[in-house]
Amino acid sequence: MRATPWSAPGDDGRTERDGWAGAGSDDPSTFCGVIVLNVRRPRALVLPALPERALARLGEVTDLIEVPSRPSLGFTDEQLADLVVETGATVLVTDGDQVRTSVLGLHLDVVAVMGPPTSVDLALAAQRGVNVLHARDRDPDAVAELTLALMFAVSRHIVTADREVRRGRVYQGKVPPAQRHRGRRLTGRTLGIVGLGRVGRAMRWRCEGLGMRVIVCDPQVPEATHTLPALLAEADVVSLHVPLTAETRGLFGYTEFGAMRPGSIYLNTSRGALHDLTALVDALRRGQVGGAGLDHFEGEWLDPSHPLISLPNVVLTPRLGEATGETREELAEALVEDITRLLRGEDPEPAPTPASI
């Protein structure tokens, strides 16, 4: 049975729940493992570890409720609903936790997500009148840098070679490692960028600096040089940088992977739902696609039993595109600013248009 919500503080600043220190106390106390720091303003339940400056700013406009530990994959909808009820929070700051029927049926005013709101039922939130905020911009430099790292890792077999060195299996079958892991030089190769938003542009100038020829497909951008079929026929490396919309979902399937140059490299640091993963596995096994670097998976996490895991020509990362300290601080501060504006009755800063992502 779900716990009853904490009552509002009385005139003396205390709640009716025994053993809990009210606003007049200098010492925070704990209930169900949740640290409560103050009680007079809107309560903000903060699940991810926010940078200190952003957390301090949020503490200026709300009473912070920090969770000392959370499941590695985030809270389920039911777990989070229990926590919201127990704390009486009206502002929820989350990162990958499930915010669906149970949570959105409560008394929340704001759900703020550190990252894309893929774990939030946006339609239900709108129906229930819950404001959903999320980091309003991507860090194009951080994402482009990770995309470059995946491109190098795939083209030069870095991950496989590293594993062999660690296992003492450098010379397998008397074949020298330089022969077994012979890669490809990227200078002079053709990079095909699908989607010339901010990340695509950041990727373009970096790869031009490497001496690569860059071609572009984007129906929204006049400077695009190619249609998608033409790009796939020419590119040695295909890098996907488009937003996930109804039109782009499943953009790459059997037809698109089959149209790529034999042995070419496929990179996706955007969204997992942009491609058909079964079609990609098939293309990798046949050698039509020579290697892949992926940072996103539909549903956000890849099942360890998925056949993609066993393929040696694939490098996988778990949503690390914006996982830098600098990016985290900037996104957190922007999100807290949006929360602050909303609590003051102002509109948050507008989110970027899909073409700018």
Automatic annotation (TrEMBL):
It holds the Pfam family 2-Hacid_dh. GO terms for biological process: amino acid biosynthetic process. Coiled coil: none annotated. One of its GO terms (molecular function) is oxidoreductase activity, acting on the CH-OH group of donors, NAD or NADP as acceptor. The keyword Transferase does not apply. Residues 119-349 form the D-isomer specific 2-hydroxyacid dehydrogenase catalytic domain. Keywords: Amino-acid biosynthesis, NAD, Oxidoreductase. Residues 1-24 are annotated as: Disordered. The keyword Oxidoreductase applies. It comes from the Bacteria. Residues 148-320 form the D-isomer specific 2-hydroxyacid dehydrogenase NAD-binding domain. This is 3-phosphoglycerate dehydrogenase. It comes from Nonomuraea turkmeniaca. The lineage of its organism: Bacteria, Bacillati, Actinomycetota, Actinomycetes, Streptosporangiales.
